Amino acid sequence: MKRNSKGSAATPAILSLLIVLLVAITAYVFISGKFQAPPPITEVGKLVDQQYVLTLIVTSVVFILSQLGLAWVIFRYRDRGQKAQYNHGNNKFEAIWTTATIVLFVGLGLMAHHAWAVTHLQPAGADALQIEVTTNQFVFNFRYAGPDGKFGRLDVNQISPENGNPVGVDSADPNGKDDIVVPTLTIPVNREIELLIRSQDVIHNFYVRELRLQQDAVPGMVIPIHFTASQTGRYDILCTQLCGLGHYKMHSFLNVVSEQDYEAFLKQNAAQ
Amino acid sequence: MSSHAHSAVHVPPAPTGFWRKYIFSIDHKVIGIQYYLLALLSVAVGIFLSVLMRLHLVWPAAHLPFISGGLMTPEQYLSLLTMHGTIMVFFVLTTAPQSGFGNYFLPIQIGAPDMAFPVINMMSFWVTFVALCFMLAAFFVPGGAPLSGWTTYTPLSGVGAITGTGEGMGQTMWLISIVLFCFASLMGALNFIATTIDLRAPGMTLMRMPLTVWAWFVTAVLGLLAFGVLLAGGLLLILDRSAGTSFFLPSGMVISGVVQNHAGGSPLLWQHLFWFFGHPEVYIAILPGMGVASHVLSTFSRKPVFGYRAMAYALCAIGFLGFMVWGHHMFVSGMNPFSGFAFSVLTMSIGVPSAIKTFNWLGTLWGGKIQFKSPMLFAIGFVSLFVSGGLSGLFLAQPAIDQYLHATYYVVAHFHLVMGVAAIFGIFAATYFWYPKMFGRMMNESLAKWHFWFTFVGTYCIFMPMHFVGIAGGIRRYSEASAAEYLMNLQPAHMFMTIAAFVTAAAQLFFFINFFGSLKFGPIAAKNPWDATTLEWITDSPPAHDNFGGNYPSVYRGPYEFSVPGAPRDFIPQDQKPGAVE
Description:
Shape of chain A: elongated
Number of domains of chain A: 2
Largest interface: A-B, 102 and 114 residues
Oligomer: heterodimer
Distance between the termini of chain A: 96 Å
Number of strands of chain A: 10
CATH topology of chain B: Cytochrome C Oxidase, Chain A
Structural class of chain A: alpha+beta
Number of helices of chain B: 15
Structural class of chain B: mainly alpha
Number of helices of chain A: 5
Order of helices and strands of chain A: HHHHEEEEEEEEEEH
Shape of chain B: globular
Radius of gyration of chain A: 27 Å
Low-confidence stretches of chain A: 1-5
CATH class of chain B: Mainly Alpha
Order of helices and strands of chain B: HHHHHHEEHHHHHHHHH
Strand content of chain A: 15-25%
Strand order of the largest sheet of chain A: 3-2-1-5-8
Number of domains of chain B: 1
Helix content of chain B: 55-70%
Largest sheet of chain B: 2 strands, antiparallel
Number of strands of chain B: 2
CATH architecture of chain B: Up-down Bundle
Strand order of the largest sheet of chain B: 1-2
CATH architecture of the largest domain in chain A: Sandwich
Mean pLDDT of chain A: 94
Largest sheet of chain A: 5 strands, mixed
CATH superfamily of the largest domain in chain A: Cupredoxins -  blue copper proteins
Strand content of chain B: under 5%
Low-confidence stretches of chain B: 1-7
């Protein structure tokens, strides 16, 4: 047998095996559930998870078929001295996989609409509890309107964390007298919450994994988001938008508590 | 769009002096190699920065070399990630595949003596070089390199050192560098477009162009439309920083207790301008790799490209759609949520031409006679990585899912696989494929294979676990995991990735040794060592100053005529007259 008339089988065999291993290990990690999002605490979070699972199924099928197809084809058609087929393609196949991917991918995108629309395209209900979220390098502050239900005006010149006024509530506005400002977010369970998200300096983010929610806080804008948490507990709030050297430690907690505990929280923090 | 006759060919005599021959050369081949070497220098810096970051992430108390003070501070970490991203995206992924290989091989593959505008070509390179100098100098100015990420979101980047030390002089240097880079890329894009349209050899119709040429051409059109926008955005941001304007800065900002004297601007405007450039940029990085993958897969399968026309149309479709999806980077930015939905559906539809390309690559391999030479290994690796990285994008394209995964390591994993590693595999495939033509010597095949095995396994070991860390909510751009308990629980996965990154980075020595060693010790390359069909293989290795030694080719057939029944050999070069071989 002439040298170089055909290639060795070792290289295609190893490469195919590596690709099969890639598929197997990836599938194993997903199935084992070692890396998972924590359970959602909102109905919307469950919708998001459903859409995630649907997308995972579609992409898994494409991933497994393409990778295993690649592994098979490179091993099957390795150079064994045969003659390659001469053809320039097949329009029927092109039409089939183009149509199939349009239906799959665009269809998937359209189905995702619902989970997005319920939080972002529909406003919060009129009786939602409004809480203002103010971010600055590298802290969160949360403002409650107090017994009068009205937020006081803000004045940038009165911002003074040292004097207990980190968000700059205007001392001349009577609506602001009873406003409560605290560094952690406490909310009652099973009640719709509308957060009004703002920033004093650079762009920050409000991220709670269990809410399946991430929203930038942009200076010059007040961005509303709404949700109803159905599970009491204590959850991490993290900043996920690069905001400077203290970005990695910009952190707070979301406490979801019973109605009674929420009332107690308000009393305890009531403005004097 | 007629091809010019050969009478139009006018090539000045080859320069003899050192400076005009090697430094200020107007020969597209020299300029291509200059771009390639610039990318090689940049990628070494970029890899080094990433290894430092990976070490810091798992051993935050370790003393690291080249870090002032030894211990890395949070702002130094942010500077490293900013510079890593910027250097890799601009000075590696944009320069090597397009300006490097495109410059060298586009004119030869279409049978032209040089680029349409050789002097502008030289200027493109030297402006890029100056841009790189400004970028690297940012490390050494007072305050150090900028820390606002390669995306440079305002107001963090717009108000000076008050938001962080690197945001002073370092950020200004960064912006000057980017503006220069955009200018150079615009000149380069014009040149590529004019050359492809005007300088094709007789018979080189659009549908006979190699898919590499199609890819470089579409990429040049993207560059022409995208870099102009970033150029404008960069200039406006420089004005915001230094001339007191407020294009991107709103009123009422209070930074470190100081009320800022700005009003009327919009931070989201910067994001729109940036991503209007930034999304096409990912296709600028990956399209040439797709061209190279098609080219190499066909050559080493000894088979015509499956669905050549579909491949060319898919490149155009990706380029076209690529301009309408920038908003998917901004789902959680506070942008109008209705537009989020529109951007989402458009983004999902980009999956269609991407899938067409993947299926056609598999179709090209199907029924072939596959030779596992090093360029082929990297091209096959490209397909695998492109599938993996592309599919994870389908999650991020849906705003409902993105609002969970945005800014987690999932995103980092996704774009590294698909536009980083896949594009780099395209560069490696191109290097191992064209090195004999460029330098007249063969590379060492054993070193190349070891390079492939380590890099293929290594990059998957870095970036597949990174997806999982993201799914668990691991946040990117954190210099430490101390903020939350669940982040600390992800540290073992980070340890695994750091070790993989270290091994993969070290394995690149196989490549560097092979690249530079083969210049001296590689066996002399023949004209056509791979039995390939396109025009670069009919000329000498390396080609003469005018590319074809005066014998300009005419083209009679398509670019991938392999294993034609009845032909004496299993390939027919494009300049072979019909009837001469069949």
